[in-house]
């Protein structure tokens, strides 16, 4: 059984930082594409991942590029999202997800193609 559990969310001021964690069981992070999606208040979950990490490297949405960094720890079977210079518009529920692929490459950033999801962790940024 695959399980993803996020932690690390909270309430911060604009310009501050947070680090989200995603603990995974049932699938190895070095054998899958791992990513973060978010859902702003009153909106649907964004269609595309904001950050992904696979055996082919990392990718970021333009909205978070140069501010967020995704990483993984193969030994801990975990993924992280370091979020710096947070803005009010980053307020959302952040969910980690896993996409199975034969070589662990990130073959899609579209939420509909992802296989496993965590419950999410809330991030609130006040200006």
Shape: globular
Helical content, roughly? under 10%
Weakly predicted, low-confidence segments: none
Overall average residue pLDDT: 97
The number of helices is 0
**Strand-pairing-aware structural class:** mainly beta
Quick one: biggest sheet?
Answer: 7 strands, mixed
Name the beta content range.
over 45%
Query: What is the CA–CA distance across the termini?
Result: 40 Å
SSE ordering: EEEEEEEEEEE
Radius of gyration over alpha carbons? 13 Å
Task: Give a short synopsis of this structure.
The chain is built from no helices and eleven strands. The strands form two sheets. Strands 2, 4, 5, 6, 9, 10 and 11 form a seven-stranded mixed sheet that branches. A four-stranded antiparallel sheet has the order 1-3-8-7, with no helix packed on it.
Give a written overview of the molecule:
It contains no helices and 11 strands. Strands 2, 4, 5, 6, 9, 10 and 11 form a 7-stranded mixed sheet that branches. A 4-stranded antiparallel sheet has the order 1-3-8-7, with no helix packed on it. A hairpin with a 2-residue loop joins strand 5 and strand 6. It is globular and about 45 Å long. It starts with a strand and ends with a strand.
């Amino acid at each position: 059984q695959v399980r993803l559990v996020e932690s690390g969310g909270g309430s911060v001021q604009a310009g501050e930082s947070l680090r989200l964690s995603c603990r995974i069981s049932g699938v190895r992070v070095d054998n899958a594409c791992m990513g973060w999606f978010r859902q702003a208040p009153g909106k649907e979950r964004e269609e595309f991942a904001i950050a992904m990490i696979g055996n082919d490297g990392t990718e970021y949405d333009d909205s978070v590029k140069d501010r967020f960094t995704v990483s993984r720890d193969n030994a801990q079977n975990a993924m992280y999202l370091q979020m710096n210079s947070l803005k009010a518009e980053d307020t959302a529920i952040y969910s980690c997800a896993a996409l199975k692929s034969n070589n662990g490459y990130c073959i899609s950033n579209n939420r509909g193609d992802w296989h496993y999801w965590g419950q999410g962790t809330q991030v609130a940024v006040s200006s």
